[in-house]
Every structure is written in C-alpha cells, then in structure tokens.
Design a protein that fits this description.
about 150 residues; alpha/beta; six-stranded mixed sheet; 5 helices; 6 strands
C-alpha cells in the first residue's frame, strides 16, 4: 500500500489550514480578494466546517509513519447531500489515485447526492466524470458571522 487512510489528529490541523489556504488562493472565486480578507474569511469558513457535527476528515499518510501526511479530504453531510469541501494531495503524490481513494472514503457517509463547494484549478480532473453539483454556498453562506 502506498498510503494509509486514518482519522485526523489534533496535530494535523496546521497542515490542513496551511495547505488549504495556499491551494485555494489561486481559485477564480477568490482571485480578486485582498490577502487580508481572503485569509481571514476562508480561515473562518474552514473553522466552521470543522465545527460541524456532520463533518468528516480523512488523512492519507505514510503507512510506516502516520505523522507523515500525503493528503486529506474534507466533507460533510448537509440536508442529505454529501458535500466534498476540499481534497488535497501533495504535488509528488498526485496522479496515483490518492484523491480518488480519499473521495471514496469520504463518500461512505449516508447521502442521497453529492456536491462540491470549493472549485480550484486542479479539481476539474476529479469531478469531470462525476455528476456532482457545484454549489459554493455550501461553503460560504451557512457559516456563522463573527
């Protein structure tokens, strides 16, 4: 096995936030935001996803050393729809099927349909053959205002 899938640990949070914020920064939906607004608002939205009792995070790591992370997937069930928020793999581990394995593990949750909420340049390959609804409001609009 090239990787091992596991539940997240508290120590994984900084890796998730850092990679998600950096990877999503070039997405068309946020391209015109100032850095200050982008990092504040997207960080807040990611925190809200993690607060959801319906959220699911799956980590892909080295089978011999679980603290060496290769990637992760984040999703949650909202109104019987499983929403894939973000799937990330480090560059050197892409195109080996890891993102698909993370997606399949996330989708084991009961749901009637699947949507995705964050569109990046790289996600097109993952969703092109799937009939997922793109709905950014699952990520942005239901979050608490602070």
């Amino acid at each position: 096995m090239l990787w091992h899938l596991r539940a997240p640990k508290a120590a994984d949070a900084s890796f998730i936030f850092n990679s998600w914020l950096k990877s999503f920064r070039d997405a068309p939906a946020v391209a015109n935001m100032t850095h200050t607004v982008y990092y504040r608002e997207v960080h807040r939205c990611i925190e809200e996803v993690f607060r959801s009792p319906n959220a699911r995070v799956v980590m892909a790591c080295d089978p011999a050393e679980e603290d060496v992370i290769f990637g992760y997937g984040v999703g949650e069930v909202i109104d019987d729809v499983f929403v894939v928020h973000f799937i990330y793999t480090k560059h050197s581990f892409r195109r080996f099927g890891m993102a698909t394995a993370l997606e399949q593990e996330l989708l084991k949750n009961p749901h009637s349909s699947v949507a995705y909420s964050v569109h990046t340049k790289g996600c097109g390959l993952l969703i092109r053959a799937r009939e997922y609804l793109y709905n950014p409001f699952y990520f942005w609009s239901r979050r608490e205002k602070t």
